[in-house]
Amino acid sequence: MRLQLVRHATLMFDLAGSRILVDPMLDPAGARPAIANTPNQRPNPLVELPADAMAAVENTDAIIVTHLHQDHYDPTAAQKLPHDRPLFCQPADAQRLQGDGFTDVRPVATGTVWKGITISRTGGQHGTGEVAEQLGPVSGFVLAAPGEPVLYIAGDTVWCYDVDHAIANHQPDAVVVNAGAARFLTGEPITMGTEDVLRVLYAAPEATVVAVHMDAINHCLLTRTDLRDYAATHWPPEIRDRLRIPEDGEWLEFTS
Hints:
By secondary structure, the protein is α/β, with parallel strands linked by helices. The protein has one domain: Ribonuclease Z/Hydroxyacylglutathione hydrolase-like (Metallo-beta-lactamase, Chain A, 4-Layer Sandwich). 23% of the residues lie in helices and 23% in strands. The chain has helices spanning 53-57, 75-80, 94-99, 129-134, 161-170, 194-203, 224-234, 237-240; strands at residues 2-7, 10-15, 18-22, 62-65, 87-89, 105-107, 111-114, 117-122, 140-144, 151-153, 174-178, 208-212, 243-244, 251-253. A seven-stranded mixed beta sheet has the order 6-5-4-3-2-1-14. A seven-stranded mixed beta sheet has the order 7-8-9-10-11-12-13. Strand 11 (174-178), helix 6 (194-203) and strand 12 form a beta-alpha-beta unit. The longest helix is centred in the last third of the chain and has 11 residues, at 224-234. The chain is globular.
């Protein structure tokens, strides 16, 4: 299995002979205003897509959208992605995606199989308390195929029971976490920070943990540099050696 961080939470991965795109945020830099009521009021996205990324994502075999916030599915994605590809999503989002013209929307209640790949949907918690309720349902997805590593994409969530349960239930070989410690001006972070990432590493002691969702949206205050430096300073080598923090456009390879 190969996995590429395109930008933010946008991923492409090659698994069992298919290429799958996750959470397409394809707008050019500065196309949208800063997220309201958040620090660092700069237009989003903060950075451009890597070179040739658009041509690559337009040739994907299938698409997964974990939820509909604009940093995971934006107007450029709605317009430019091929509308006939299978698009897997949480049930609450199916009608909106169909309305955007996608003709093969496949809401995943618990799980499904496509081209020999088992796709299981997991829960998450996009923050804590009332904020998590206001931000609406979010999902993660686990992908497994014979002879391939098991991949768990946690989605926009903090550490919570759903993440712990997904790791225990699916025993992933690779876990992608949305870090960045995104937050509003008040309240707790709504995506994972350093301690949440560490909890994932301890909960999945055989897995490689890939931290993404940094340096591209204005309210994600934890940067790649911050996370690397914190891990180097505070975490034992046997833990931090299983952490990957890819740059935009970087490919990672995994074996089962």
